[in-house]
Amino acid sequence: TPPAIIAPSILSADFGNLGHECSRKMEEGSDWLHVDIMDGHFVPNMTIGSPVVTKIRGYVDRPLTPNGRGTFDCHMMIMEPHKWVREFAKSGCDLYCFHYEAAVSSVAATDPTDTTTKTRTSPRALIRYIHEEGMQAGIAIKPDTPVDVLWDILDAEDPLERPDMALVMTVHPGFGGQKFMASELPKVTALRERYPDLNIEVDGGLGLGTIDQAADAGANVIVAGSAIFGATDPADVIAKMREAVQS
Ligand code: DX5
Ligand code: ZN
Predict the structure, then answer these.
(1) pLDDT tens digits for 123-154?
(2) Residues with Cβ within 5 Å of ion ligand 2?
(3) What CA–CA distance (Å, rounded) separates 24 from 29?
(4) Nearest to 51, CA basis, from 27, 82, 18
(5) 139: which of 12, 120, 151, 198 is 20 to 30 A away, CA to CA?
(6) Does the interface predicted TM-score (ipTM) exceed 0.95?
(7) Is the C-beta atom of 8 inside 6 A of ligand 1?
(8) Is 36 tagged catalytic?
(9) 102: number of Cβ within 10 Å
(10) What is the rounded end-to-end Cα distance, in angstroms, of the chain?
(11) Distance of alpha carbon 99 from the chain centroid
C-alpha cells in the first residue's frame, strides 16, 4: 500500500479566512488539502471556483516531498469537467479529480461530429488532457456507481490515460458532516486487490470512529472535513488518522 496521505477538506473551513485556514492545516501536519468544487448542477450545492483556488494556493508551498506535501487535491463535483481543466491547471491545482458520472454524461451530450470536444470528454480522453495540462488525474465514483466501471479505465495501456488516483465516495456528494456509508467499502477492497500501488481516496464521514474500517479496506488517502476542522486539536486528529492508515 502506498503511504498514508491525510487531506483535510476545506469545505469545513472558515470561508472568510480560507488562505490562513489552508496554511494552518499544513502547519498542523496535513499532507494534501482537499478542495471541494461544486457547481450547483452535479450536486445541489455551490462552493468556489478557480479564482479562489489561485488566491489560496499562494498560502501553501508547492509539493516538495514524495508524499506530495501541499498537493491541492481538487474534487470536481461539476458537470462537463473537461471545460475547466485548463483554468484549474493555471490556478495551481495539482490533482484534478473528476467524477466518472459527469464525464460519461458529457460524452452523451457531445455532438459526434465535434471532434475537438470528443477528444476531451470520455474518461480516458479527459485523463490524457489533464496530464497534458501538467496535473495528476483522479477519477471519483458516487455511492450509486458500481466500482466495475473503473477497471477498463485503470487498465489503460497508455500511462497518459491512466488515473493517478481513484476516489470512492462514502457519502452522497454535496455537503460536509454526513454519516459515513460503510456500504461503500467493498469498492475500496476490490480496488486495492487489483491495484496494490494505486492512491485510493475515501471522502465523506471519515473521522476517528470510521478511519479503521476505511484503512482496513485499503484506502490510503483520507479526506476529512468536519472531523478535523471541528476538533479542538486538529493536529492530534491528523496524526491519529495517519497512524491508523499506517498500522
Ligand atoms: C462532500 C465532500 C467532502 C466533504 C467531507 O461532498 O466531497 O469532501 O467535505 O466532509 P466530512 O468529512 O465532514 O464528511
Ligand atoms: Zn470531497
Answers:
(1) 999 999 999 999 999 999 999 999 999 999 99
(2) 36, 75, 203
(3) 9
(4) 18
(5) 12
(6) yes
(7) no
(8) yes
(9) 24
(10) 11
(11) 9
Atom of ligand 1 nearest to the CA of 34: 8
Which of 169, 239, 221, 234 shows the shortest CA–CA distance to 14?
234
Q: Ligand nearest 179 Cα, by number?
A: 1
Classify the C-alpha dihedral 67-100-205-62 as positive or negative. positive
**Structure confidence by residue, pLDDT tens digits, 167-218:** 999 999 999 999 999 999 999 999 999 999 999 999 999 999 999 999 999 9
- Look-up of cell digits 500511462: 159
Tell me how far the alpha carbon of residue 9 lies from the centroid of ligand 2, in angstroms: 7
Question: Cα of 111 to ligand 2 centre, how many Å?
Answer: 30
Specify the pTM.
Answer: 0.97
Buried b (16+ CB within 10 A) or exposed e, 36-55: bbbbeebbeeebbbbebbee
- Cα–ligand 1 centroid distance for 190 (angstroms): 23
- Identify the pLDDT of residue 62: 79
